[in-house]
Specification:
The chain is α/β, with parallel strands linked by helices. It has one domain: Rossmann fold (3-Layer(aba) Sandwich). Helices cover about 45% and strands about 15% of the residues. The chain has a seven-stranded parallel beta sheet, with helices on both faces. α1 runs parallel beside α2 and α1 packs across α7.
Length: about 270
Amino acid sequence: MKRIQIITGAGTGIGREFACQLARTRPVDELWLIGRRMDKLEETAALAASQGESDTHCRTLAMDIGGPQGVAAFTQLLAEEKEILIDALINNAGFGTYGTFMETPLERELEMIHLNIYTLTALCHLCIPRMPPGSLLVNVASLAAFIPLGNFAVYAATKAYVLSFSVALGAEIADSGIFVSSLCPGPVDTEFANVASGGVRKKVTGGKSAEQVVSYCLKDATRGKHISLATPIWKFKAFMSRFVGRYAYARHSYKHDTRPAPGSAGQ
């Protein structure tokens, strides 16, 4: 049986860092790197292959896994591989869009739901039967999962789903020996802000490094922590969200926590 790991959104940022750190600390026979841009996937593959003395082969798969069509393509890909065990599944693919709900194109919001929720859920269902005891499943949520956010309504809602689903899934399959982690990062120095703002904001201010966030997540998994928050301030914000009125905070963030939406000027 060939042991593999699957990382979605592997071309840059957190996905790329998972590829590099898993290749160094948890080597397997083959690493499946899934994303839309082949050039970025090949960069990730080269970096992952250079980690330590691992003989892991990197398989780059440039494909759109969003929504029903993307899930169908992934299902077919998995069906073609009869003799594999999935050592780790990293559901990192996802995106957000800054701006109010009514000012954001409906098509873009639905694409977000398809990728952040539909695809993530489907990949878990498809991969878990092939995951042996000791396997790791990481679903990337967000600090935004802990409370509704104005100007970020659909994104925060999708990540609230990911967090809730991941914790419940982890409880359900714990006896199988599969560990489920929900990674909940705050601002990270990746392409996220550039995509969410339509190129208006190139990066977030004070974003943490993807290397730090992924390293902490993998350590949390070994410590049996199902929710990973890499910094004290993120932990504090997640904790305090229990004591803040959900509507009141959504209203406050709508009024005062504006982000540069696609088509806006400045940063």
